[in-house]
Every structure is written in C-alpha cells, then in structure tokens.
Write a structure and sequence with these properties.
Layout lengths: L1 H25 L14 E8 L3 H15 L4 E8 L6 H6 L7 E5 L6 H11 L4 E5 L9 H6 L7 E8 L10 H14 L11 E5 L13 H9 L4 E10 L4 H4 L2 H16 L1 H5 L3 H12 L3 H17 L4 H17 L9 H33 L2
Parallel strand pairs: 1-2, 1-4, 2-3, 5-7
Antiparallel strand pairs: 4-6, 5-6
Length: about 375
C-alpha cells in the first residue's frame, strides 16, 4: 500500500513540476516578431444555441465593441435553437453589419464554426459564445496581436472569478498553466468561449469533434504561435456547476478523440507532444490514484485506528461533495473532491462500457 501512496505522490509532484519545465522552455525562445499592418477589419462569429436570455444584451454589446473598426461584420450562426432565440434574432435582421444564418438542423459547434468561416469576409476572425460576460475594449485587444506575422491565434482568459465573483482554485491553476504555455508560443488549447485567429490558420473541423478549441489549437501550432492575454478576461459560471457528470464524460471522450487522431498528434514536434500529454493527459491518472489511496486508508483502519479519523473525514467530504443538496456551503475543497469523484466515475464508465465492451464485441466477431 505504501507503493500506491508513493506513486500517487510522484504523479502529483510530476504534474506540479510542469510549470517549472515551461519556465525553462520559454527562457530559450527567441522574441523575433515581424509586425504587419494595423488591423482595421474583423469578422466576429457568434455561436448561438438556446441562449435566449443572453442574446439581446450580447449582440448589442458586440456591435458597440466592433464599431471601433473601419470594416467589421457580426455573423450569428444559430444551431436550430428551440427556446425562442430565433425570434430574438429576427429583430436584428435589418441591422447594419449583421448577418444571421439559421440552421434547420442541430449539428453542433464545429459545423457552425465551419459555416461562419466560410461566410466571413475578413481575414481576422473572432469566435464568441453567448453565455460569458465580456468587458469593454476586449475585441480590440484580442485581435491586436494578430498583426504579428508569426501569430496564428489569440485566446482570452476565463477569469478565476465567476459571474458571482466566487474564487476558483481550479480555474486559477489552469490559467497559470496556460499563461506559462503562452510564453513558449505553444498554448495547448485556446479558451473556446472567446478567441481570435487569422482566417488562413483555420482548418475545417470535423463535425464529430468534441474539443474543437483544442483540435484547432493543435492544428495552428504546427506553423504559428498561439498566446493567451491575461488581461482579456471573461467571466463564466461557477466551474463546480459547469463541471457536471455529463460535461466531464463528454470532455473525456473529446480527449480520446484527440489522442486517437494520429494525423493530428503526429504533426506535433517533441516539445509540443510533451506539453500536450503533460498538461492534458497526465492529470487524468490523479483521480484514480487518489481513489486508490482512499481505499488503502480504509483497509489500514482495521490494522491501525489512527487512520480511522482520516478515513471518516474523507468519506464525509466525499458524500457532501457528490450530494451537494446536503450542504448550502460553497467551498473549494468540496468542489475539488466532487470533480475528482465525477472524473473517477466517468473514466470507469468509459473504460468498462465503451473501451472494454467494444473490444469484446470486436473479438467475438473475429
């Protein structure tokens, strides 16, 4: 059992060392940047689906932000909403510089992004989701770095404070990693809700891709740099609310898609591969290892009662975390434990129901 504790501690330590490696990596990067002409034209693509409560305010805000450019357009792609969003969009049909595309079938974000880029008139493109809160002058700031020749995409930063101004340790650490990655020029995944790119850096995204932001980022870093702007912050919902079981399982499926795409992963250089696995995949082992440590602690209770108090505390925290209705208290540790438990269940579900089951079926057909 001591071996399990040792392996768990080693994996966690290795994951936490990643920022140090990024610091050493970024110190070797050259700062040569060739500046092109100032940016005066932008195509902003707003991805809409069942966001009736956000649309009116978001569209008016974006139009005000875009007005600082000489040439601009707001392309709204609605993915066959069923909540009244289409009626709201009808009110903007005759508004100058707005183009509205209503899809007759719900086909997902990648399909909407592909349509948006096909219809964009300008070289500088911004993708924007409907839910998040944005701050003044964010559009000008997010496209400004695209004037450099070696820059392919620029990501906004999802604040570690949510819309209710609650602090998230998880989001803060993720931002810390992304900022470190950004200094190497190889940001492993833009923040999907708001980012800018050059049109010639866009690759058509297959409709089945789940993590479109990660997929597109890995395509871009093959030849261009990606950076994140720490001061371009957007505000989202509480991560502990967003990370429900369905969302976590979908995220894990998305990571499986990426790793199984040999053409996509194969184009990365060695340092980019290290960053991808170190950032996105190594941490997937941590929930399972922590669960094994919890089981080991329970077993040790029968041999040494000193472990009983620790085991009871961890058990209570686990119950309170999963069944959030038992507690009105919001605190980081509870959210962290809840997310770990959901990851464990989702990983087990995917492994046993999808991977093992499909392998058994495949073998039976041989």
């Amino acid at each position: 059992m001591s071996l399990i504790y040792l392996i768990t501690a080693s994996i966690i330590l290795l994951y936490l060392i990643y920022p140090l490696w990024l610091t050493l990596y970024s110190s070797n990067q050259s700062e040569s940047e060739i500046e092109t002409a100032e940016i005066n034209s932008v195509s902003l693509i707003l991805l809409s689906y069942n966001g009736q409560q956000y649309l009116n305010e978001k569209i008016n805000f974006l139009l005000k932000e875009l007005s600082c450019f000489q040439h601009y357009e707001l392309i709204i792609i609605d993915d066959n909403s069923t909540d009244g969003s289409k009626e709201i969009l009808d009110n903007f049909r005759n508004t100058k510089n707005i183009r509205i595309i209503l899809k007759n079938e719900h086909k997902g974000i990648p399909h909407s992004m592909n349509i948006g880029v096909d219809n964009a008139k300008y070289e500088n493109i911004i993708f924007c989701d409907q839910r998040q809160n944005l701050f003044d002058n964010i559009i000008f700031r997010i496209v400004e770095p695209l004037k450099f020749k070696n820059m392919g995409a620029v990501s906004a930063c999802i604040s570690h404070l949510d819309k209710e101004r609650s602090y998230s340790v998880i989001r803060r650490y993720e931002n810390f990693l992304k900022i470190k990655e950004s200094k190497t020029g190889n940001l492993i995944g833009v923040y999907g809700p708001f980012y800018a790119l050059k049109k010639d850096c866009f690759s058509v995204i297959p409709d089945h891709i789940i993590l479109d932001d990660l997929y597109l980022s890995l395509k871009i870093i093959k030849s261009k740099q990606i950076k994140i702007l720490e001061d371009c912050q957007i505000f989202d919902e509480d991560p502990s609310i967003l990370f429900n079981y369905k969302r976590i399982k979908r995220y894990l499926y998305g990571l499986l898609q990426i790793i199984n795409d040999k053409a996509l992963v194969g184009q990365l250089n060695n340092k980019q591969l290290i960053m991808l696995f170190w950032h996105k995949y190594l941490r997937l082992f941590i929930p399972f290892l922590l669960f094994l440590c919890f089981i080991c602690t329970g077993i040790l209770c029968s041999k040494n009662t000193d472990y009983l108090i620790l085991f009871c505390i961890l058990s209570v925290l686990g119950i309170v975390s999963v069944f959030s209705g038992l507690s009105k208290i919001r605190f980081s540790l509870k959210s962290f434990i809840r997310i770990i438990i959901l990851y464990i269940v989702a990983l087990a579900d995917i492994f046993f129901k999808d991977i093992c089951f499909k392998r058994i079926i495949h073998m039976s057909w041989k």
